[in-house]
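Homework help board

Subject: predicted structure for assignment chain

Our instructor gave us this sequence and asked us to write out the predicted structure in token form, then describe one feature. I got the tokens but I'm not sure how to describe them. Can anyone check?
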Amino acid sequence: MLGSVFSSSGISNIWVFLAVGSLSALLVSVAKAGFGGSLGILSTPLMVYACQGRTELALGVMLPLLIACDQFSILSWWGKWDRRVVLLLVPGLVGGVGLGSLALWGIKNLNLSHHQETGDAILTLAVGVVALGFVGLQVLRSLRTNPLPFRPVLWQATSVGALAGLTSTLTHGAGPIVTMYMLPQGLPKGRFVASTVLYYWIGNLIKLPPYFALAMVNTQTFGVSLSLVPAVAVGVVLGIFLHRKVGEKQFTGVVYVLLAIAGAHLVVTACRSLLG
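My token output:
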């Protein structure tokens, strides 16, 4: 039965999918539960590889996994967040998800018009660009020795929320944006992680109806997602443990290198498909 679910979704190599997909789910769970989520952006390129380059399928498979991760994580960090910091983002978040959903609708129309490769290439390019942009921004940020304190007002939070919602809908890649918004506010480590957990919980639930409407999440993709839920549970537990035991610099260094390689590969692959 499980094999039929995979085959109906177009996944031919089940063992490769389970190996790479589990790594993707594990990484995003560790990142969200232990380090605020931004490092989990590597999980989207990995899921694209697991789904044999089918980016739309990868996004649909990932969303239920992200929500499962949010549910596990929010119980662990319950009540430790800064509610004001998160709620300021929500109005823009809703608008950004709306814009992202319209963009996905346009891409799906390309697919339905026998331009499957073009639609997938556009999404792949978006994932790769976001990944490389995040690495570049983190390098620039590391060069600043005395960053100025940041106390956002409503219009700033709304703008960031809209950009995060748009990026999240298209690539599940809002982590870098949210991190760059929250980190300069000087939240304690635990409150920072709890606040990002609350944000992702709200944001991913808002994304679910458009994904259903666009058939990016359906019976087949949900069945595929279920096969990776154990990796999510393990990742959440591991993330909470690493939050207490491991310095973030050691963890982030390896992830940034892998993210840069994956992002560059996705960009090159997408450009070849679009220009070929």
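Reply (TA_rk): Your tokens look well-formed. For the description, you could write something like this. The chain has 13 helices and no strands. That's the kind of observation they're looking for.
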